[in-house]
Amino acid sequence: MQGLEAAIARVQAALGVTPEDYPDRASWLNIAEDYLYSLYEQPVNLQDLEAAITCIKAAVAVEVAPEDHPDRLELLHELGSYLGDQYERARNVQDLEAAITCIKAVLEVVPEDHPGRLELLHELGSYLGIRYERTGNLQDLEAAINYAEEAVEAAAENHPDRPQFLNNLGTQLSSRNERTGNLQDLEAAINYAEEAVAATAEDDPNRVVRLINLGCHLHSRYIHTRSLQDLEAAINHTETAMEATPPEDHADRALMLNNLSTQLCSRSDRSGNLQDLEIAINYAEKAVATTPEDHDRAGFLKGLGVVLAADINELAICRTLKLLSITQRRRRRQHQRITQCLQTVWADLVVI
Question: Most buried among 50, 95, 134, 176, using CB within 10 Å?
Fold first, then answer.
C-alpha cells in the first residue's frame, strides 16, 4: 500500500511541473488515474475514485487528448466505467448519465471486431437497465435488452465474460417480465441465469450474485405458476449464496437476506409452517439493520412490512381457529349435558 501511495505521489509531482500542452501529459494523467483506481480498489475509498475520475477527465479534455488522440477512446471508456462505479457507491444520477454518455460515444465509433466492443455492449446495457429502474422508461429497458443480447450473441462459448453477459441479459428480461407480465421473458431469464451459474466456477466471487438472481427469477415464476419445485429451488439457490459469503461484510448481504425472507414467507403461506415465517421476519429485520440509513432501504423496509403483515394475518388465523376450537368444545360439552338430561328423563319415564 505504501509503495502504491508513493508511486501516486511521484506521478502527481511530475504532473505538477509538466506544461499543459506537453504531448505526453495525457499519458501521465492516465498513469495517475490507474494508480489511484488501484488504491481505491483495495480499501473502499471514494476520495481515491473521485481523484482518479478527475485525472481521467483532464486527460480526455480536448486540449489534452483531441479527437484523433490514439488513447482517447480508451480514456473515454475508462471514464465511463469509473463514473458507473461512483454511481454504485454514491447514487448520484449525474454520474450515471455521464457514464452512459461516455460509453455510448465510444461504442458509436469502435469497429465491430474491436476487442473491447463486448465489454462496451455489456456496460451500456447494464447502465441503461439501472436508469430504467430509476425512471421506469421502457425505452431504456428495451435498449438495455438489445445491447445485452448483442453481447451474448457475439461472445464465444468459452469467452471468460460470457457468464456475466448471460446474467445481465437474464436480469433485463426479468425486469421486462415484471413490467409486461410476459412469461416468455421470465422463462428466458431463468434459462440465461441457469447457464450463467453453470458456467461460473465454485470459487468465483461473482457466483454469489448469479445465484441470487437465479433464485429471484425462480421465485417470480413460482408466483405465476405456484410450482412448489420453483419455490424450493429459489430458496436453495439463495441459501447457497448466503453460505458462500462472510456473515456481515458482503456487499449483497442485505439483498440476500431480503430475498430469502420473501421466499420463506411464500413457503409459509403455502404450507402454514410458522417456523418459516419466524425465520423470514428475522432475515427481513437483519436486511434493514445492515443497510445504512443513507442507502436505498425502501425495498428492504417494504419487505419487512410484508412479512410482518403476513405474521399478523397468521396470528389472526390462529386466533380464529383457537376460538373455533373453544366453540366446538363448548358445543360438545353442551351436547353431553343434553344427552345426560335426556337419559335421566327417559329413566324417570320408565320407572313411572
Answer: 176
